[in-house]
Design a protein that fits this description.
The structure holds two protein chains of two kinds. By secondary structure, chain A is mainly β. Helix content of chain A is 0%, strand content 52%. In chain A, the strands form three sheets. In chain A, strands 2, 5, 6, 10, 11 and 12 form a six-stranded mixed β-sheet that branches. In chain A, strand 10 and strand 11 (104-106) form a beta hairpin. Chain A starts with a strand and ends with a strand. Chain B is mainly β. Chain B has no helices and eleven strands. Chain B has strands spanning 4-7, 10-13, 19-25, 30-38, 44-51, 57-58, 67-73, 76-81, 90-98, 105-107, 111-115. In chain B, strands 2, 4, 5, 6, 9, 10 and 11 form a seven-stranded mixed β-sheet that branches. Chain B has a four-stranded antiparallel β-sheet with strand order 1-3-8-7, with no helix packed on it. In chain B, strand 9 and strand 10 form a beta hairpin.
Chain lengths: 116, 116
């Protein structure tokens, strides 16, 4: 069985502060994929990143960065110098390679509120 | 990235009626499509997996006779909520997986269903 845990329900920050979203996953698959999505109030999922289990390199994309650590089964996401437009729900997701082929297991989501 | 559309984007219906939601891959062929449901302030939960030309596979707890899925072509999957009730009110999101593009899924914008 696969499981994704996002322990933080909501994080509130003031603009320009950094915010880190935690994601811990469980899977028996040796090959799997991890994702982060942003869901603004409109509801449409916005793809942020996809990472396979063999690529532990951290990644930076503009103000976004991701820290993948297989040793702790974590795939954390940091927004640097947050902006009001970053306010949304962020989901971490896992997709395996055996009986969960192609299926996404989403975490509960973390609501990020950025105030001016 | 590839584009997936959903129609309608929102629908309001009376209890007892059936509602059809379309999911189309606009610029790629989706051999597999997934249907998710998201209740307010909750995560996305996978309902079913549909493969073109074959019967859908439903997740545990999802009534296949209530949520009819048809994947008649490589670009179209439909979800019909039969005899809808207020508890079926939710946000329904589909995703398409391209041929040979394992785990590279593209999500539709979602359909908000309200059953009165």
């Amino acid at each position: 069985a696969q499981k994704v845990t996002q322990a933080q329900t909501e994080i509130s920050v003031v603009e320009k502060e950094d915010v880190t979203l935690d994601c811990v996953y469980e899977t028996r698959d040796t090959t799997y994929y991890l994702f982060w999505y942003k869901q603004p109030p409109s509801g449409e999922l916005v793809f942020l990143i996809r990472r396979n289990s063999f690529d532990e390199q951290n990644e930076i994309s503009g103000r976004y960065s991701w820290n993948f650590q297989k040793s702790t089964s974590s795939f954390n996401f940091t927004i640097t110098a947050s902006q009001v437009v970053d306010s949304a729900v962020y989901f971490c997701a896992l997709s395996g390679s055996t009986d969960s082929w192609g299926k996404f297991q989403f975490g509960a989501g973390t609501q990020v509120v950025v105030t001016p | 990235g590839a584009v997936v559309s959903q129609h309608p984007s929102w629908v309001i219906c009376k209890s007892g009626t059936s509602v059809k939601i379309e999911c189309r891959s606009l610029d790629f062929q989706a051999t597999t499509m997934f249907w998710y449901r998201q209740f307010p302030k909750q995560s996305l939960m996978l309902m079913a997996t549909s493969n073109e030309g074959s019967k859908a596979t439903y997740e545990q707890g999802v009534e296949k006779d209530k949520f009819l899925i048809n994947h008649a072509s490589l670009t179209l999957s439909t979800l019909t909520v039969t005899s809808a009730h207020p508890e079926d009110s939710s946000f329904y999101i589909c995703s398409g997986e391209g041929q040979g593009r394992y785990n590279e899924q593209f999500f539709g914008p979602g359909t908000r269903l309200t059953v009165l």
